[in-house]
Amino acid sequence: MTGISVAGIQKRFGAYQALTSVSLEVRDSEFTVLLGPSGCGKSTLLRIIAGLEYADGGTIDIGQRRVNDLPPRLRRIAMVFQNYAVFPHMTIYDNVAFGLRTRKTPEAEVRTRVMRMAELMDIGAQLSKYSAQLSGGQRQRVAVARALVVEPEVLLMDEPLSNLDALLRLQMRAELKSLLQEFNTTTIYVTHDQVEAMSLADRIAVMNGGHIEQYGSPMQIYSRPATRFVGGFIGNPPMNFLLDDHHSYSRQVGLERPGKAHSLGIRPEDIQVYREMATQCWPVKVGVVECLGPMQQFTAELDHQMLRVTADPDLALHSGETLYLRPDPAKVCWYDGEGRMLPV
Amino acid sequence: MGLFRVQARAFEPTYPLLQGAEIAVGWYRLDGRVAVKPNPWLPYLLLGPAGIFVLVFFVYPFLQVFFLAFQDSAGQWSLENFRVMVDDFNFAPSLINTLMLCFAVVPVQICLALVMAMMISRVDRGRDTLLYIWTIPLGISDLAAGIIWLSILEQSGFFNSLLGYAGLIDQPLNWLNYQNPVALFFAVVVAEIWRATAIVLVILVAGVGLIPKEYNEAAEVFGAGTWRRFFTITLPLLRPSLQSALILRTLLAFEVFAVVLILGGIDLPVLMGESFKWQFEYRDAGVAATYAVVILGISIAFTLLFLWALRVPEEAQG
Ligand SMILES: Nc1ncnc2c1ncn2[C@@H]1O[C@H](COP(=O)(O)OP(=O)(O)O)[C@@H](O)[C@H]1O
Ligand SMILES: [Mg+2]
């Protein structure tokens, strides 16, 4: 049983507050993704959990063990680095065997385990080569093999796919997913790519400016963004926010509105599009129309506020015409003036 | 401002290169115009003066020394100079002393510099100050270094005073003469270590800085303690710098001269000192040049040895 429990972690670099009181619970064999824009402190948090960076405050427990003051090598973790950090002066075999040898594993066992891992990761033919002789994708596999071969209780990955080209990234993502399901290792995975996060995670922690905005399942994060930041960061295109402090728009479409509501959030695909005037609709002017194959997207102008809407590809849309929109009442989220979601 | 003007002019026909992705590549003047492509001969042109300098002041004298060593006074090819040199009673001691000094000094310097470089790499604040202080001896000429150590070790020097105060000796001892060859040898070793470890340190500090910190972090995460990280990660990755430092220091060690001259005078003959003596005391440029050729030969041999022993196979280069 190896959960990870992080509480009240703070980190300063000089005058810059990189992390402001971050707390995170990762359950045993759960796959948690830290997702957020570049510079929000994801790597810093991961490195603090790994022990490569010291926190200024807060506690870290790995499997009921307080690890705050333990060096990385005593934390029973493995890590995959963004640039792989495959040792250039060792063969791939020695790289994969590194963690086993430091743990004084008998050489015969090292051999069987490295071989098994190499076969699993499809790097068997590379074992006698050096890092410089491998492609980026192969290096990535070596880094993962080196981490998994020690059968760690906790696996930490810092943007492991971000240095691969798009196609390879897609393929490795699928492979990683099935591999890690098999290993059942508690994993924290850092990425700035929301698609990667959505497809891999059991739970996603969305970070922004050194704190966690929301921690929940991908579906929760997507359909019920806890803050405007989360709604605006996740989804392509992101959630629409309609300023509704006078209640006029919500009344127009017959929505119940919590008292302190400041703005209304609705995903582009949760808006019904009508060609004819219907009751309880927003009349809008169509702006830019983009056909994306399985669907089309258009911008709609509602009294100088811009909405992005997803529509059926068969619907003939023309820039400048007037359409009628109705948001799905069950999908609407409300946010207060500070951008926090309000309960309905 | 510059970028703005590049974009504003991007689609003007006079600047056909300034479109789309190409904005980032190529050579541009600050005003956004395409600059003239550099002349392919320019690098050679710029290297020319240095090349001529080396030819005139290095290769030419080198050839001259070579002719001096391998020709007799009549200008005929001969090994006469070598015979004279080998028959001289100071030749064997000077060769042995030079090699022994080198073997005593260089390994200690490398180890010391390694330790210092590792210490510096762990320091955050005050790192530069520490480095400056440790490299002060770099700025002192070997002659001055010899004089400094002479004032410490001579009969009325600081070392004897210190031992006297500590009650370890009754009267000042003479450390620096032929009656005490071991002490004399160690005096030179200590002075040389003090004087020339800094150059090794500078090379190694630069080398340590070139090793991406992820390698050490990865090793740490995968269970390697401090010593294991040093021996399996840092030291192997430092090999190119170690190689440079070793070659440089060994060559300089074979040319050891001023410090020995001042501390030991004629009591500790070394190759360079013999060369000097033949040139300026015996007025025999031929034998002096022959010593120089011997030093050169040993230097080349050791350089090749280090190049081979510490080579990094191409496939294992990061
Ligand atoms: N060693 C450091 N010294 C100073 N600032 C740092 C250091 N490491 C990270 N930072 C700063 O902390 C912030 C968070 O960095 P990081 O955790 O790497 O972000 P992310 O991984 O989310 O892109 C950044 O603004 C970065 O500049
Ligand atoms: Mg990062």
Provide the descriptors you would attach to this structure in a database record.
heterodimer; A: 344 residues; alpha+beta; Rossmann fold; OB fold (Dihydrolipoamide Acetyltransferase, E2P); 2 domains; six-stranded mixed β-sheet; five-stranded antiparallel β-sheet; 9 helices; B: 318 residues; mainly alpha; MetI-like fold; 14 helices; 67% helix; 0% strand; binds adenosine-5'-diphosphate; binds magnesium ion
Give a brief rundown of this model.
The complex is a heterodimer of chains A (344) and B (318). With 344 residues, chain A is of the alpha+beta class. Chain A has helices at 42-50, 92-102, 107-120, 136-148, 166-183, 194-200, 218-223, 228-233, 248-252, and strands at residues 4-13, 16-26, 31-35, 57-62, 65-66, 77-80, 154-158, 186-191, 203-208, 211-216, 240-243, 263-266, 271-274, 282-291, 296-302, 305-311, 322-327, 333-335, 341-342.
Question: How would you portray this structure in words?
Answer:
The complex is a heterodimer of chains A (344) and B (318). Chain A has nine helices and 19 strands. With 344 residues, chain A is α+β, with helices and mostly antiparallel strands. Chain A has a six-stranded mixed sheet with strand order 6-7-8-3-9-10, sandwiched between helices. In chain A, a hairpin with a 2-residue loop joins β15 and β16. In chain A, α2 packs across α3. The model of chain A has no long low-confidence stretch (mean pLDDT 92). Chain B has 318 residues and is mostly helical. Chain B folds into two domains: 1-38, no CATH class; 79-317, Orthogonal Bundle (MetI-like fold), CATH 1.10.3720. Chain B is built from 14 helices and no strands. Chain B is globular. Residues 42-43, 159 of chain A line the site of magnesium ion.
